[in-house]
Amino acid sequence: MKSISMIAAALVLAASFGAQAQKSAADGIAEYRKMLEDGNPADLFEAKGEDLWKQKRGPKAASLEKCDLGLGPGVVKGAWVQMPRYFADTGMVQDLESRLVTCMATLQGFDAAELKKTAFGRGEMANITALATWISASSRGQRFALPQNHPEEKRFYELGKRAFFFRGGPMDFSCASCHGEEGKRIRLQDLPNLTKNPGDGIGFAAWPAYRVSNGQMWSMQLRLNDCYRQQRFPYPGFASDLTVALGVYMGVNAKGAESIAPAIKR
Fold first, then answer.
1. pLDDT tens-place string over residues 55-64
2. Of 2, 85, 90, 225, which is least packed with CB atoms within 10 Å of its CB?
3. How far is Cα 206 from Cα 40, in angstroms, rounded to an integer?
């Protein structure tokens, strides 16, 4: 009887040490990110984006200062935390990146189809990422409040929800496989539950972000592409209805969360 009690005590102690080690690992990653924040290379992309917004570029030699991001022509502050949203001039629900493509096409004369085909990190796509970094930074500290008044905004939320839980591919994965419940991790990385508000600066509220591991600035569109890569799905098209709908679903679920974008990630 005594030996059984000792074994039980040992198991409880081991579980306690395991929980402590897990907490320490998560805390260690959080401290690592905190140390890097002061020198976040996203600041460089942010500065580039602000410059690009004001530059007269493209076939029409015009700036983006009349671009309407949902709050009126030229209004940048607060726009990020209310996107994706419906735009009457295109008759579409658009996220920040797809809206930038529209503005670059209509105001500056760029070919929208060519912009969408450009690889991430190359040419004008790199400029779109820089613009998205600056625009998101202009709403840092504000709280997400995506509109859900227009029927298309509501439809896209439901489309995004279906896409989030859709399982398929060789791994039979979905977005929800990693982000559909509490307490999941991959290696030492905590995986937030994105079916509800995960908290300030977590999940949707942290992107765009600079990835230290590969030295790249990642927009939300690129982040979603990488999620599909990990699920062994083909990459979705840039600014496709699928990626915009997922943005609506996560953004609406993040209502009230404080944006810390552009953040820094491992």
1. 999 999 999 9
2. 2
3. 13
Q: What is the CATH number of the domain that holds 260?
A: 1.10.760.10
Cα separation of 66 and 89, whole Å?
Answer: 14
Are 7 and 51 part of one and the same domain? no
- 191: tokens are 């995986």
User: Of the candidates 60, 55, 53, 91, which has an alpha carbon nearest to the alpha carbon of residue 74?
Assistant: 53
Q: Which residues are catalytic?
A: 227
- Alpha helix positions (H), the chain: 2-37, 42-54, 96-106, 112-117, 123-137, 151-165, 175-179, 220-230, 241-253
Q: Do 179 and 254 sit in the same domain of this protein?
A: yes
DSSP string, 53-76: HHS-BTTTTB-STT-BSSSSBT--
Same domain, 99 and 188: yes
One domain, residues 238 and 196: yes
Backbone angles phi, psi at 189, to 5 degrees: -95, 120
Q: What's the domain count of the chain?
A: 2
Query: If we measure between CA atoms, which residue out of 83, 100, 47 comes closest to residue 217?
Result: 47
* Whether residues 109 and 27 fall in one domain: no
pLDDT tens by residue, 28-62: 655 655 665 667 999 999 999 999 999 999 999 99
Two tokens, residue 127: 């400029």
